[in-house]
Design a protein that fits this description.
The structure holds 2 protein chains of 2 kinds. By secondary structure, chain A is an alpha+beta fold. In chain A, about 35% of the residues lie in helices and about 15% in strands. Chain A is built from 5 helices and 5 strands, in the order ββαβββαααα. In chain A, strand 3 and strand 4 form a beta hairpin. In chain A, helix 2 crosses helix 5 and helix 3 packs parallel to helix 5. By secondary structure, chain B is of the alpha+beta class. Chain B has a 5-stranded antiparallel beta sheet. In chain B, strands 11-12-13-14 form a 4-stranded antiparallel beta sheet, with helices on both faces. The termini of chain B are far apart. The chains are: A alpha+beta, B alpha+beta. The interface between A and B is medium-sized, with 28 and 28 residues.
């Protein structure tokens, strides 16, 4: 099995992977980073969103081996020690989650969004959430959380 | 997913050699179609040749009156490119509306046109602007490139390296996206240069993207909204599926074409 090297949440690691292993399964099963979820497994729901070299991607539609030499951030890598990331904090404050299954993907998508477009409004947020589904249909507060987080980051 | 072996190519030459050495190999670029297809076991290549990180294929540049896009440029890069925003904004907007943000960070222009999905956006831009597609072997005009459903004139061991779009300011793409997938239910690309008017339709044709000659002729005779409105596309040869039957789609094609023309007349 080929060897891959990556930096995951700031830590360098290397491991042998099967060519066909998906990145999401590598993170969950091999690295035990189970915060990244498998929702639809057909690249529609976005529960598996992580950052690769600073860009949000769907880890269920990528091979682990494609991420060789990449720098990866998962939901576990956002908080600073005991200090939640501002987007995590905003989701907590604004009740941006119900069952919580979509939350890791929502938050990773939101962090990427706020970085790309610091000035947001409701319309932009809803459009940008095209790739993330919440089956509790809790979008109202998810949108509210993202707007609140964007404002906080701006300030 | 069935097992396969994987190589990461460092150059187009290396990828081409690997591809001609193994008829069962497939090129992997962003993988946004290929990997889901393999997961469903609808494709089972023996080998994947990863070209996503080949530096020589990652560029966007302006050359005389053309925008040239390297084949592994992803949709976000095309959308975000200052050169494209300034000289061919229609292409930036088209890329901005493909799939979702995460897919746009991986999916590539070369992958999209090589796959020639009948509901993809880029084929309409290629045909609507008269793009030239450069491969590892030759240059192909868009008309000769897109042959049918998921079919192109690419040979088994040929790789798309760049797409050259003539800058036609007077061009507009109107798409009615499927609300779930964001693929086009009907997308119409209209361009008007000094030489000709082109109308390319995606999302609707049973054989994939096509030029709508009747509309082109009508608009060449009379460049107006009423002229666009007077031409009706026949529903023969228009796709029919769970999302809409051929009459419905044919009507969407008409509506999108009229909106595109309306937009251009109001804008210029």
């Amino acid at each position: 099995m080929p060897l891959v090297e990556m930096e995951v949440n700031g830590k360098k690691m290397s491991s042998n992977v099967e060519e066909r292993q998906l990145l999401v399964h590598f993170l969950r099963d091999d690295l035990n980073l189970t915060g990244t979820h498998v929702g639809c497994d057909t690249s529609q729901c976005g529960a598996c969103v992580i950052h690769i070299d600073g860009h949000a991607v769907k880890s269920c539609s990528m091979l682990a081996i494609q991420a060789n030499n990449a720098s990866i951030t998962t939901i576990e890598g956002l908080a600073n020690e005991n200090q939640l990331h501002p987007v995590q904090e905003a989701f907590k404050e604004n009740h941006g989650l119900q069952c919580g299954f979509c939350t890791p993907g929502m938050i990773m998508a939101a962090v990427d969004l706020i970085k790309r477009k610091p000035v947001l409004n409701e319309k932009i947020v809803r459009e940008e959430l095209e790739g993330n589904l919440c089956r509790c249909t809790g979008y109202q507060n998810i949108v509210k959380s993202i707007l609140a987080a964007a404002e906080k980051v701006q300030a | 997913m069935y097992q396969f072996n994987y190589i990461k190519a460092k150059s187009v030459e290396e990828a081409s050699i690997a591809l001609s050495n193994n008829p069962e190999a497939k090129i992997l670029a962003g993988g946004m179609t290929l990997i889901p297809t393999m997961k469903q076991r609808l494709a089972s290549p023996e080998q994947l040749i990863d070209i996503r990180q080949i530096e020589e294929l990652k560029f966007i540049k302006l050359e005389s009156n053309n925008i040239i896009v390297g084949s592994v440029s992803n949709h976000f890069e095309v959308y975000d490119s200052e050169i494209i925003k300034e000289h061919l904004p229609v292409l930036s907007r088209l890329a901005e509306n493909i799939g979702d943000p995460h897919v746009r960070n991986m999916g590539t222009i070369g992958g999209s046109i090589s796959n020639n999905d009948p509901t993809a956006d880029y084929p309409a831009a290629c045909l609507g602007l008269g793009a030239i597609i450069k491969t590892s072997k030759r240059e192909i005009e868009a008309e000769e490139f897109f042959i049918g459903l998921f079919e192109t004139s690419l040979e088994e061991d040929e790789i798309v390296t760049q797409v050259s779009f003539p800058i036609i300011k007077n061009s507009c793409y109107m798409k009615f996206p499927n609300p779930a997938s964001r693929y086009a239910m009907a997308g119409v690309f209209v361009s008007k240069s000094d030489e000709e008017i082109r109308v390319a339709v995606t999302g609707a044709g049973e054989n994939g993207v096509f030029r709508w000659k009747e509309m082109e002729n009508a608009l060449s005779n009379d460049w107006s909204v009423s002229s666009a409105d007077s031409v009706r596309i026949s529903s023969d040869g228009i796709m029919s599926d769970i999302h809409g039957n051929s009459d419905y789609r044919a009507n969407l094609v008409n509506v999108m074409a009229t909106r595109a023309v309306e937009n251009l007349i109001n804008e210029y």
